[in-house]
Design a protein that fits this description.
Number of strands: 11
Order of helices and strands: EEEEEEEEEEE
Distance between the termini: 92 Å
Largest sheet: 11 strands, parallel
Radius of gyration: 27 Å
Number of helices: 0
Strand content: over 45%
Length: 144
Amino acid sequence: MNFRGFSEPKIESKVVEEPPTERPAAPLLPPALLRQTVLGKGVTIRGQIFAAEDLFIDGVVQAPITCKEHSVTLGHNSRVTGNIEAKAVELRGEVEGELRANESIRIGPGAIVSGSVRSQSVQIDPSARVRAQLFVGDVPNSPE
């Protein structure tokens, strides 16, 4: 009984357990990044890299990179020592070696390049530092 002399109604509750539903995990990366391989800033690679999809590097690579049918993007934290061969290259980090792209090379703000640059089209941001031989026009195939 409660304080006014009335009894409180009984309320019955039942806990119903539903079987867990399988939901696909939400992607951690934006959709554009899901179609490329990403090497983050905490990654260091030594050896050789052959990629059959777009490649984004923001770490340290001491190796030649071959990605002939796809693009290579080097982030602000990237440091690459070795040649890069790709369909297109976008650089915001640091490279020591030969950059060779069949379509285009874009050397972005703050990028540092030493070596050589070969492509049909080359864009260089005014704040980039480039100490390289520059070859613009037809890009002959590199020796296999």
